[in-house]
Each structure stands twice: as C-alpha cells, then as structure tokens.
Amino acid sequence: MEPVATGVRPVDASSIADRVTEELRRAILSGSLAPGETFSLRQVAGMLEVSFIPVREALRNLEGEGLVVTRPGRSAMVAPLDLDDLHAIYRLRRQLEPEMARRACRLITDEDLDRLESDASLFGDESLGMDAIYDNHIAFHLALLAPATSSWDIRILTTLWRAAERYVRIGFGAFDPDPQEHHRRADAHHTLLEGFRSRDPKRASAAVLEHLTRNEEIAKQGLSSRGAERSERATAT
Q1: Where does the chain hold its CATH 1.10.10.10 domain(s)?
Q2: Residue 66 — φ and ψ, nearest 5°?
Q3: Which of 56, 57, 90, 112 is most buried, judging by how many CB atoms fall within 10 Å of its CB?
C-alpha cells in the first residue's frame, strides 16, 4: 500500500453546500429572512461569498424541508406561513411522536433523563433569547425519542420540527417578554420528562400529545396575531 503524503491535511467534513444550508435555515427560522420574502441566487451567493452551485444545492435542501419555494430561473421565496400547513405539520407529529414515546419511555436510561432534566431547566433561563433556546430544543426532543427511532424516523421528525419551529417561534415570541413564560416553558418540558420517567407508555404518550396540542395552539394564536398586525398596517397605509 502506498504511503499517504504527509503534506495532506484533514478537511472539514461539512461541505460548502451544507454550511450554506445551515446559514439560510438559521436566517429563515429566526425570521431574518421573512415569510414570503424573495431573493436571487446572486444575492445569496454574494452575501455568503460563495458560487451559485452550493446556493442552488442549499435551496433544494431547504425546499425539501418546506422552508423555501424555488422559482423558475435563479430566484427563490421563503415559504409563506399558512394555517393549513400548521395543522398539517401537527397532524403528522401527533401520528408519529406519541407512538414513539410509548416505546422510548421504556428504553431511555435514567442517566439520559437526568441530563435532559438539566437541559429542560435551561429553557427557563430568562437570560437566553429565542435563538439560544431553539438551538437546544430540537436536540432535547430528539434525545427523548432517540431510543425508539430509526435513521428514517429522525429524518422525518427533524423536517417536521424545523417546519413547526417557524410557527412556534412566532407564538412564543409574543409571550417572551413575560418572565413567567420562561418558567412555563421549563415546566412544560419537566412535565414531559415526568411522563417518560413513569415508564408507563400511556402516560408518556399522553404527555407528548398534550405538549404538541399546547404548542400548536400557541403557534395558531401567534399566526392569527401576526395576520391581524399585518392587516392593521395595511389599513394604516
């Protein structure tokens, strides 16, 4: 076997397209790129100082996640927020996550539950903004269900969670200035963990279903408020 050249250095495992995808996803989920906003590949490539090729690949990835709508030519639009889409996302989540919880509650270790208790407490930290909270939110839910998931489950769940995040951020963002909201957010995740600690599939499933129902309602309220605000601005102008 030929020796490996000593001058060859390890490369970053993530590709440029992956990093472009991550940055555009972050901008969309945080609202920096607003729902319905259009942009060209040239604009994105210029801002990120990359070529068209990774931008095009990133937009295909994000379109698959329901975050972007690509258009003929070299432009794209941030997917609009829609009440029917919100209900569809949560309808699918209610079909998948409670069933996974039934199995995961008997497989997850006490050590993992103890670690997740600490993570849940962070959701009540008033010093953390929405970005910091949601950086850990998907990881929390994934760790909770991971013992009962396959790689395909994780792909589907991650897509649904990211799609839901835009709506949930709007809903929770309206409550964020209230310090009690931070405590409620932490309590909601501690309650979720209690269902899993019981090792009772019915209780764990019910806890997940209650969590999803609550979040969907808050997201729905946020979406309605957003629509009302836009109508008021349109009337004022």
Answers
A1: 16-78
A2: 80, 15
A3: 90
